[in-house]
Amino acid sequence: MSRASLAFENLRGFVISMVLAFHSFMAYMTFQPLSQSPFDSPPYDWQAHPIIDSNRWWGFDLFGAYQFLHLMQLMFFLSGLFVWPSLARKGVAAFLPDRIMRLGVPFIVGVFLLMPLAYFPAYCTSSDDPSWSGFWSHWFALPFWPSGPIWFLWFILVLNVTAASIYWLVPRSKELVGSLSVIASNYPRRVFVGFIITSALLYLPLARLFEPWQWFQLGPFALQPSLAPQYVIYFLAGLILGARGIDRGLLKSDGVFAQRWTIWLVGAFAAFLLWVVAAALIETGAQIWFLGTLRELGLILFAAGACCATVAFFLHFARRRGQIFWKISENAYGIYLFHYVFVIWTQYSLLQIPMPAVIKGTIVLSVTLVLSWATAAGISSIPVGARVMRGERRTSMAGILIRKSN
Fold this sequence. Notes:
The structure is a single chain. By secondary structure, the protein is mainly α. The chain has one domain. Helices cover 71% and strands 1% of the residues. The chain has a two-stranded antiparallel ribbon with strand order 1-2. A hairpin with a 2-residue loop joins β1 and β2. α5 runs antiparallel to α7. The radius of gyration is 21 Å and the shape is globular. It starts with a helix and ends with a helix.
């Protein structure tokens, strides 16, 4: 495996760890409402705040803001990175069934089995009848089917199907995407500026209508109206940059992009400060007409800068096996799929225990990581589970090891 591939395996484990940390600390952030909202009455805030704990720490708010502003963009970028090479290797006829098996099936299982199990404690905190029968009567009365973090899977599946359709129906798509990948490698500054401009043109008009944390939901299909186009262009960016393979072009482990990780990090920090200052002034009621625009520009610049800084950092420093994130990466998909159940139940179990928020958050993260990791590994030991959780890439690697041992 190349050094760039190793870096992205470690990055994958890191990203999943940050997802777990974000959800684990959510109950202890100071911006949380003072009390739990009714389970069956709009605006159904318990979806965003399943458990509300009186023990809080402002440091979790800064951590949460940092992750909220860029983590999903980074996940969409990483999801698009290997799509085009996979299409070229497998062909559309094999690629689509594989995507449906690995994304569609877990989405159905996650939404209709795992999410009710996960949200049951949120119902118990605001109900006079904390029973499963009472929960199901209220659950089925909701005007939608809560999907929690599983929403990511249906969106990614749609993007994969769209990419496969273009690959199949547009004869010159292979050459076009390859050309765009070359351009991105040869003119990174111009491409980055163009990417920022495109992000702004897509996001700023929608930001006037929808807040970044506002959701639209139809049945089990949820998305953020203002950020959904951002996720699409980050997925496309990953698709284009990965079209010729991650070992070539801009994402080479020893390339200029990786070597300039400090520049990306400083730029991301500056953009984060811009967002924090503007958001804080808006929160205090400052009546300055351009503050909203500054805040949204800070989001755009920070998301791009933080994604670039994280990728460059891992390409430069995390290019070997044996690191903790490498080990997490082996079961990253399963950990993501199951973690929300353990997050909410652990937060619920600690709710009545007087304890500093930092300790509670650490306990929730540790328990969630261990249990979701063990669950993912256990299911992956079953052939069907290995097929869904780890895919053909892991199966193929096992085949290589078996052949070598013979």
